[in-house]
Amino acid sequence: MPARGFYFMAAPTHTGVEHFKPIPLRVGSSLPSRVAFALRRFVDLQLGTIWTFLGPRLADLHGDLLDVGCGEMPYRSFLPEAVRYTGIDVPQAGAFDMQGNAEILAFDGLYIPFPDATFDAILCTEVLEHSPEPMALIAEMHRVLKPGGEADCHGAFFRPCSLCPL
């Protein structure tokens, strides 16, 4: 595991209007839902890679975690019970067939509505490539991350082993 710090899988670029409609990651509790999701992880190389990579990393976390662009909160199940989870997403997530959840806090996609140095860890999975200003969003995540904290950011179509310290 790399040293603690702020890591991202690539610096995406984004221009223009969002045209791609991501498929929601839903992990249901029924047996057919769990089987369907396991098959999707097998077929979808990107999802399978991120799922495999995040499991051990998130299992070791403690303190307060911010999940930026949390969608259906699929990675929450990896967290120890003691981790205090906060999920944020844009109000337009419904346009991507995301189901509403009262636990998810709305944010404008750029400004993270928390004070400086609030979170011990940040998770941002397949979000930066949808942001019109990804570097500004990364700066916001850095702002709300406590000194010595860790942020894991993963973007679509990026190699899973290209972690780079900021």
Keywords:
166 residues; alpha/beta; 7-stranded mixed β-sheet; 21% strand; disordered C terminus
Number of helices: 3
Please count the beta strands (DSSP E, at least 2 residues each): 7
Class computed from helices, strands and strand pairing: alpha/beta
- What is the N-to-C order of secondary-structure elements (H for helix, E for strand)? EHHEEEEHEE
Low-pLDDT segments, ≥5 res: 1-20, 159-166
Strand order of the largest sheet: 4-3-2-5-6-1-7
| Residue-averaged pLDDT | 76
| Helix residue percentage | 10-25%
Radius of gyration: 15 Å
| Largest sheet composition | 7 strands, mixed
Distance between the amino and carboxyl termini:
16 Å
The oligomeric state of the chains shown is: single chain
Shape: globular
Share of residues in strands: 15-25%
Structure in words:
This protein has 166 residues and is of the alpha/beta class. Helix content is 23%, strand content 21%. The chain is built from three helices and seven strands; from the N terminus they run βααββββαββ. The protein has helices spanning 31-43, 45-59, 134-144, and strands spanning 6-8, 64-68, 84-89, 105-106, 119-125, 145-154, 164-165. It has a seven-stranded mixed β-sheet. Helix 3 (134-144) links the parallel strand 5 and strand 6 (145-154).
